[in-house]
Amino acid sequence: MRTEPSRPAALPGTTPIGRAERLALAAVTAGFLLVATVWAVLTPALAAPDEHAHLSSIIRVAEGGGWPDPGEARVPNAVQAARDEAALPAASRSTIAELEVAHPGPSDLVDQMTQHPIPFYAIGAGVYGALGMEDWRWDHAMLALRGLCILLVAPLPVLAWRAVRDLTGSAPAALLAAAAPLAVPKLAQITGSVNNDAVAILTGAVVAVLAVRMLRRPAGWWAVAGLGVAVGVAGLSKGLALALIPLAGLAVLASPAPGRWPWLRRTLRALLLAAVAVAAGLFHWVRNYVVYGAVQPAGLVRPDYDWGSGGPDFGKLVDELWRSLTASFWGSFDHVERPFAMWASAVCLFVILVFGLCYADRTTRWRTVVLLSPLVGILAILLPGIWADYTRTGLLAGMQGRYLFGMLVPLIAASALAWRRMPPPNRRRGTMIALIAVFAVMAVDGLVHGYLAYYPFGPSGAQEWATHVPVPWPALATLLGATALVGVAAVVLLVRALPRDHDDEQGFGQPDARMGRSESGEQSAPATPET
């Protein structure tokens, strides 16, 4: 008798996706894209972090200037002239071609972006050339490239939803994960700017989703190879994506391996992961070490500092690292910092450590450790480099919260494991509604703080924004209205998608029983292994 080939089983404990969940997810994703678009027209042209250097590298690649060695590239005089024109009304700005004719050649300012791999800039150069942006006004070209970055990050809410849904089996927790990026205004601003973080955010989220699936079911060879490709491609975004290596490696080692010789199979799969990741993109960093003697050579060389009778202070470095990372992670716009940043970071970290690690069973605790491993990786990358630069130059630099955005999905997933252990079952709906409200308020609060950072309060500020933004005022008003409407709709749909507390088994699920393992630690019915 002929039988049909078996299909991979769905992840254990995962509830079907209903219409209400799909609508809420679509609304949240649309809301995130619109908020990022508002940031794209709110942030003055070339005012986002290192935006002039990113634009310089895109133009250089588009015009056939190649990819010089780190520290050798220079910002074109045309881009420097564009920075000067940023103070002019939008209608008075020049085209890129006009600037290149009036201000030819390179300036003395170093373009440090050649310390990164080229793919993001090649993508930007392809769009730049295909649309003929050299004949556009430079601020219109900037806005189009910001739109490209928004499209690259567009899947983030869906990927966060997918990771948490696979991890917990809970639709409400997954919807909260999709909405969580709205609570990080700096993320929305970076999404709406020209920055290679766009590729790092996207690829980091993909790695997280694949790693979560490794934690939930036996890892097949093709699944491991796919994860290796994702890690390699992520490594072609920027060096800080190397912090994803522990997440991928630990996920493969922690993946269920039923049968004989489980550790042998896990070891072989880890070796396959490493080989594929290197072939898919990590070779770039191996080459750097061979050619330059450093994994990531300095793109900007600063003069040495004479410490005199004193010396570097490691305690000062740690204090500044915590302050800078937390402030610029949540939102620091044009040196206007949000005062709750350190408190919010401390609360989130406390909840993850206490409820995700201390009060969890063995399986959940191990999964939390795996999901938090990119934080260890990022510190292992940042601290030695910052300390070396500090001892040589006396400057504490390179401490930006946006460096963590590529690890945002695993952090959200770890938070989901922790938050779901906090409220009792009869209060989970109320807790989740409160979190939805907090996310919405933080998104609006970020836009308000951003506006006040760049423009005066009152009618004069609105007039200045309308004069300098490179889109017509009616289009800007339409964008703001659409963002408000979609935001309200997203909140309503999210709340409607949450089950009642008495429907816990059909909605929220048990934090541990839905993860393929019981509270006692015994393995539940396994999923069909992948091949």
TrEMBL record:
Segments of skewed composition (Polar residues): 521-531
UniProt entry tagged with the keyword Cell inner membrane: no
Residues passing through the membrane, by range: 118-136, 143-161, 196-215, 221-254, 266-286, 340-360, 369-388, 400-419, 431-453, 473-495
Region named Disordered: 503-531
Entry annotated with the keyword Transmembrane helix: yes
Entry keywords, A to Z: Membrane, Transmembrane, Transmembrane helix
Record-given protein name: DUF2142 domain-containing protein
Species assigned in the record: Agromyces seonyuensis
Lineage: Bacteria, Bacillati, Actinomycetota, Actinomycetes, Micrococcales
